[in-house]
Amino acid sequence: MAQANRRVHALAIVAAISLGFATSAFSQSTASPPTGASALTSPTSTQPEASMANGKSSQTTKQAQSDTRKAGRTANRAQKNAELDKLEKNGYKPTANQSNYPDNIQNAEKKASGQ
C-alpha cells in the first residue's frame, strides 16, 4: 500500500512539473486582435467552433476521414493487385528464384506494355 502511494505521489510531482513548464509555453498572447480586413480572415479565438462543441460533429468528421483513407487504401491495393496480375500473365513469377530479379520483372513489364 505504501509503495502504491509513493508511485501516485511521484506521478503527481512529475505531472505538476510538466504542467509548470507547459503552461509558460502556452500562455496567452498580449498582442491586440486584428482589425480591419485582416480581422475577417484571421481567427481570434482558440475555442472550438459551436458546431464542434458537442463532439458529435468531430466524430462524424473523423469517421468520414477514416472512410476516405480506407477507400484510398482499397483502391491502391486493387490497382497494385491488377498490376501484379498483368505482370504475372506476362511471365513474371514473384515466387521463383530471384537471382535474376531486375531482368525478369523488366522483361514482364516490356511484354505488358507491348514493346
Automatic annotation (TrEMBL):
Basic and acidic residues biased stretches:
80-91
Where composition is biased (Polar residues), the residues are: 38-66, 95-107
Q: Where is the composition biased (Low complexity)?
A: 26-35
Q: Which residues form the signal peptide?
A: 1-27
Q: What is this protein called?
A: DUF4148 domain-containing protein
Q: Superkingdom, according to UniProt?
A: Bacteria
Region feature Disordered, mapped onto this chain: 26-115
Alphabetically sorted, this entry's keywords are: Signal
